[in-house]
Amino acid sequence: MKELRIAIIGCGMISHRHMTVIENLNKRGQNLKVVAAAEIDKDKLMAWGKQYGLDEKDLYVDFREMLKRDDIDEVEVCVHNNLHTSVATAVMAAGFPCYSEKPMAASYADAKILYDAQKKYGQKLAVQISSIYNPQTRIAKEMIADGKLGKIYHARSVGHRRQGRPGYDMPNFSHDFVDPEVGVHGPLFDLGIYHIAQMLYVMGMPELESVYGTTTCDYWRDKRIDDAVNCHTPVEDLSVAIARFKGGLSMDIYEDWAIHMDEVGSTFIAGSLGGLKFTDVDQTGGPMAVPEGGNIVGGGSLQLPRLQHFGVDEKGRLFDTKLECAIGDVTGMQELALNPEIEMYNDNQLQWYSYLRGILTDETRIDSPYIAMQTAFLSEGVMLSNELGRSVTADEIKKMSKSIAIRKQQTPFGVIEYDFDDYKPE
């Protein structure tokens, strides 16, 4: 298998998860090599290079210098929310395929700019959405497509942490998560992409009509922590919304980083003939993101996504079936044994590398940029609705969304100016 030469931009926590996946895939014969990395924090960059065995000549504080190389096959962008459009468009403009971290952007306008950059620069793009790369999602999508649930009329997208604001309550995460300029938004954009994107994808990407939403940042805070993490203008810690799609489908959305409650319910999809309950939705990257003998980077346990099918048979009898469908379950292993190609649909990065190698095409890969853009579209609607105090239509979201991606970044070595297209409302 031909070697793929990879460059990384951003050497923070998520880059280590990328590296873990690369190391695990190499053990399975993928022939991947990280040849360069860029990070504005020189101390962090040098430590990263030492950890992964890169020579100092292959480490760059200015990623633009790294993009002048001619021995790179693809670039992985591991920076924060509001730099995704800025950096990823620069990568594609320089002539490289790009795999970007989630969310696609901090606004729909910027997600659309990044999505359109694929065509403008003739480059491939993928966005990390681990929740859609596993048997849970695949089986649910198949069941809905096969009519097992009848007419789908309602869904619920749920994400909950008892107390877990990254960079605030979770000090091992960067403070950029709670920086209103860099992180911009809270859980709806940070973790909501895993839940909302999964629901949209399994339901066939329904077309949004309108959304009503509200957000708050009223969870407990302390000035001592505010001062320690330099966070005095908090981003929201809770978002709640109800969305309506064409055909009468509705979806309620609940996403928090912190709330004084132990359980808030599960993600589910309801149809006329049956419903699916989604347990342990993946938001950590699956088995490939776990180092050998270690724990997932950033903490937490390996999630085991499963489904529960509720329904009614032709005689009116109700049933409840548990579907053991985690990748490591008997079902997941048996599926791989019968269809080895399914492995490419069980991991974000493996699908990306398979797409780059030409094993998967635009028709056979999962179109993560489109799914991520539509997720940003709905999420933006929640934010606009909260600002206006009323529901907003899909057309209003398109007209009112604004580009907020960082165009000028102050760094220890000077200012980086990003040049990307303006948003043109549709």
Automatic annotation (TrEMBL):
<dbReference type="InterPro" id="IPR050463">
    <property type="entry name" value="Gfo/Idh/MocA_oxidrdct_glycsds"/>
</dbReference>
<dbReference type="InterPro" id="IPR055170">
    <property type="entry name" value="GFO_IDH_MocA-like_dom"/>
</dbReference>
<keyword id="KW-0560">Oxidoreductase</keyword>
<dbReference type="InterPro" id="IPR036291">
    <property type="entry name" value="NAD(P)-bd_dom_sf"/>
</dbReference>
<feature type="domain" description="GFO/IDH/MocA-like oxidoreductase">
    <location>
        <begin position="138"/>
        <end position="276"/>
    </location>
</feature>
<dbReference type="GO" id="GO:0000166">
    <property type="term" value="F:nucleotide binding"/>
</dbReference>
<dbReference type="Pfam" id="PF22725">
    <property type="entry name" value="GFO_IDH_MocA_C3"/>
</dbReference>
<feature type="domain" description="Gfo/Idh/MocA-like oxidoreductase N-terminal">
    <location>
        <begin position="4"/>
        <end position="127"/>
    </location>
</feature>
<dbReference type="GO" id="GO:0016491">
    <property type="term" value="F:oxidoreductase activity"/>
</dbReference>
<protein>
    <submittedName>
        <fullName>Predicted dehydrogenase</fullName>
    </submittedName>
</protein>
<dbReference type="InterPro" id="IPR000683">
    <property type="entry name" value="Gfo/Idh/MocA-like_OxRdtase_N"/>
</dbReference>
<dbReference type="Pfam" id="PF01408">
    <property type="entry name" value="GFO_IDH_MocA"/>
</dbReference>
